[in-house]
Design a protein that fits this description.
- There is one protein chain.
- With 210 residues, the protein is an alpha/beta fold.
- It is built from eleven helices and five strands.
- Strands 3-2-1-4-5 form a five-stranded parallel beta sheet.
- Helix 1 crosses helix 2 and helix 1 runs antiparallel to helix 5.
- The chain is globular.
- The protein has two domains: 136 residues, Rossmann fold (3-Layer(aba) Sandwich), CATH 3.40.50.1000; 66 residues, Orthogonal Bundle (DNA polymerase, domain 1), CATH 1.10.150.
- Strand 4, helix 10 and strand 5 form a beta-alpha-beta unit.
Length: 210
Amino acid sequence: MMHSNIRHIIFDLGDVILNIDIPRTVHAFSLLTGRSDEELFLLFRENELFRRFETGSLSAPGFRNLVREVLEMPQLQDDQIDTAWNALLLDIPPARVTLLQQLATRYELYLLSNTSSIHIDKVNLILKESSGVPQLHDLFKKVFLSYEMGIMKPDPVIYEMVLEQAGIEAQHTLFLDDNHDNIIAANRLGIQTIHVQKPPTILEYLVPYA
C-alpha cells in the first residue's frame, strides 16, 4: 500500500474510536426483565431491533415502544430503556481523539457508523467528558450515520453514498473498521482498508500515516 496516495480516511466508530461491549446491553436488559441473556439475544435478533433502529425504520420513541412490546413490559420508562441500550458504550481514550486531531491536519477525516440516535447522543456525552470535544462532528469533515442514511454496512451502496456525498475517490481513501464483512465490502469498491483487531488500536495501526 502506498501511504502517499491516501488523502481521505474513513473511520468506523465502535471498537475503532469508541470501546464497546455489546453483551453488556443484553445483560442490562436481563437485569431489567429477569430473563436470561440468551433469551433476550434471541428476542432482539428475531425482532431485528438493532437493524430496524440503526437503519432509521424506527424512531427513538418507536424503538422504545417496540422494546416494551417485545419484552412485554409496558411499565418500562424511557430512561430505563436508554440506559440499558447504551450499556454497551464504554469509553473513548483521549489519545485516540488526539490522534484524530493530528491526522486532520494532513487528511480529510470522515466517520461511517452503523448506529442509532440514542447511541450517538450518549457517545457525544462520553466524548465531551473524556476529551472536552463537544461532539463527533467536531472531529470529522462529515459524519455518516446509518440511521440517517437508511442503510447499513456492509451494503455496498452505503460506501458508494459516502464516496459520492463526500466527493472523494475510492483509490485515495482509507477505511478502518473492526468488522471483517464491512472491510471486504469496502475493499471490493477499491477503497484501501485496515481491519482493526484487538489488542492493537488505531494508535498502532495508523503509525505509518501519522
